[in-house]
Amino acid sequence: MLTAHTIKIIQSLDKKKYRQKYNLFLVEGNKIIKELPNSDYEISEIYSIDPEKLNIKNTNSEKIQPGELKKISFLQTPKDSVAVCRIPENEKIIETSIQIILDGIQDPGNLGTIIRLADWFGIEQIICSNDTVDVYNPKVIQATMGSFLRVNVVYTNLENYLPNYKYPVLGTDMDGDSIYKTEFPERFSIIFGNEGNGIRPSTEKLISRMITIPRFGNNQSTESLNVSMSAGIILGQIFSDK
């Protein structure tokens, strides 16, 4: 049976300050939890209504009741299991040919979807500004559908990082060169900006070239595209010739 103290700690992990305090985050659902042993993430504890279905060895697993699962789950309709995992201490930037940079993305669903897109297209790394939503936010983790396990997400000061980046940096905006007329280099970064304000001026100064998704419809009432939708369209075009 879960103690009130344990429930309180797990419930607090929906807030960044407590995830940082305890160095823990939550992963929900057997499908994603089964992938954890093959990743670099360390499982602290698993709480499941049927631990035998997971069959994860050398891990602390506790059988709980559906009512208890509902107390510690962040989902409206709780699934079968919750895994409490340790947040890795050292974030390391790796060398990759194509990487995504996010400048102030705030919506957890957008970040989760972009991580999932990166995984789909084989992009191994996403660099985030320090004010981008936390990757370990439960809504982000859920939206990735397990892709966070395969994409390196690192937070840094973009104004310090970009001047030392050796390759072209492409920015995305309403004004820019059409993605359908752009020849993408072999190695580069592509930046997506904040949902409401776009790429901030201090980051924009460090961009090599601005690109855009041209509008084809006659009706001009749609102001812009959702950032994760834009990312999907642009990544599809980037990889269309590969």
Protein model, in words:
The protein has helices at residues 4-12, 16-22, 30-33, 66-72, 108-120, 138-144, 158-161, 201-204, 227-238; strands at residues 24-28, 43-48, 61-63, 81-86, 98-103, 125-129, 152-156, 169-178, 188-193, 209-212. The model has no long low-confidence stretch (mean pLDDT 95). α6 (138-144) links the parallel β6 and β7 (152-156). Strands 7-6-5-9-8-10 form a 6-stranded parallel β-sheet. The protein is elongated and about 60 Å long. The protein is α/β, with parallel strands linked by helices and 242 residues long.
Could you list some keywords that capture this structure?
single chain; 242 residues; alpha/beta; six-stranded parallel β-sheet; 9 helices; 28% helix
Spell out the helices and strands N to C. HHEHEEHEEHEHEHEEHEH
Overall pLDDT, averaged? 95
Low-confidence blocks of residues:
none
- Please summarize the sheet with the most strands: 6 strands, parallel
Work out the helicity level.
Answer: 25-40%
Task: Give a count of the beta strands, DSSP E runs of length 2 or more.
Answer: 10
What is the topology, as strand order, of the major beta sheet?
7-6-5-9-8-10
Terminus-to-terminus distance: 53 Å
Oligomeric status: single chain
**Approximately how much beta-strand content do the residues carry?**
15-25%
Question: Which term fits the overall shape?
Answer: elongated
- Give the radius of gyration: 20 Å
What structural category do the secondary elements indicate? alpha/beta
| Number of helical elements | 9
